[in-house]
Amino acid sequence: MEKYHNSKTNNLLTKSKSGHLPKIDEVLKACGSHGWNMWRGWVNVLAKQGLLNRVFAPKANWNNTKPLDDDGLWEYLEKPTGDIMLLAGFDWHSQPLHRSLEWQERWRQAKVEKIALLQENYSAKVTQNNLQWQQQMSEAISTASLCIDRLICHHEPDVQFLKENYQIDLPSLFLCFAIDPQYFRPIKPFENKINRAAFRGNISAYFSGETYQDRRKLIELLRESGQVDIFEYTYNNADKNEFLTTEGVKKYADLLNQYRIQLNLPSISQTLTNRPMEVMACGGVLLQNSIIGEESKTFFEDQKHLIFYDENNPQDLLNKIIELQKNPDLAYQMAKEGQKNCYENHTLFERVISILNWLNYDIKKLLKPKLIFIN
Q1: DSSP states of 245-262 as a string?
Q2: Most CB contacts within 10 A, which of 19, 131, 241, 364?
Q3: DSSP strands (E only) in 121-236
């Protein structure tokens, strides 16, 4: 595998500024539409905390070398007015912003602390087992890393994987996915939720037939059992309003609020994805397949905050669903504990605090945790 060595740290921009609220810019993804909590949720939380400076929504086609519309970003990078710039999905979903030498140089000279949020799972088996996919991701992270000062991985194993496989030695931090508490919250009492299990998720077989293969197999078995309501979609038939509008995210959160029991089925990643946080935040009891990551495994306690199941044993999952249906008090208690844990530790507010601590800003007392709604 080809190696890359990139290091571009600017510690002058990370001095402690006690009593000073930093100004934070957000650059949204240039290609595609993605879940609220992976891009526009950050904007919403930053704005509510008085931290948001500028938002850029560039547009590009997937294979473009440069963006079709940079939304004023090119001009802004000459004289940034913010202290920190968060770049959502910058590596993979904004490649037209860092493929060309012109854009790479523009990023390098910009005097603002540039932090990329990496939602893609580089170390995932399905990614590494597909040569085309592997190569494209390798190219994406190599050019992106020339343009940033720091990176945040949302998948725990990726921090070490990027260092060992691409020799990327930028300051790196693992921060698990999180939720925007304004939209992901209980809006229906637990006793009024449907006493069944439900799953809603992507089944797209892109790049390889192995993509979501285990999920599709399990869905068929669950469908045959009659115990689970399935709401599957692919990227081609997904309702894009869910990702782009507040009404869309409300509709999605409303669906999560309908059922007492929610499933997270095997994904591309073997780590915690966004859905567990979304389900628990909405007050449902979560059944989660096994995960990897030593720190990630400490976030939620089995049988207290959620239930882990054996994805290789469908009957194990069905048995756990039936047990929860027969024991609504147990299900309610677990849903309550899961939501409490999620709101205390896995909101985008907490992720913003982690980033500011990383940059030596001691300002948590100036922020507004009461803006988080706990039912």
Answers
A1: -HHHHHHHHHHHTTEEEE
A2: 241
A3: 150-153, 172-174, 194-202, 228-233
Q: What's the rounded Cα separation, in Å, for the pair 61 and 78?
A: 24
Same domain, 27 and 152: yes
**What is the number of structural domains in the chain?**
2
Please give the model's pTM, rounded to 2 decimal places: 0.91
> Tell me: the pLDDT tens digits for 168-195?
999 999 999 999 999 999 999 999 999 9
Rounded Cα gap, residues 94 and 27, in angstroms: 9
pLDDT digits (tens, 9 = 90+) for 309-329: 999 999 999 999 999 999 999
The β-bridge relationship of strands 113-118 and 52-56 is unpaired
Q: List alpha helices for 274-313, DSSP H.
A: 274-281
Return phi, psi of residue 37, to 5°: -70, -5
Q: How far apart are CA 82 and CA 96, in angstroms?
A: 23
CA angle 335, 339, 344 (to 5 degrees): 150
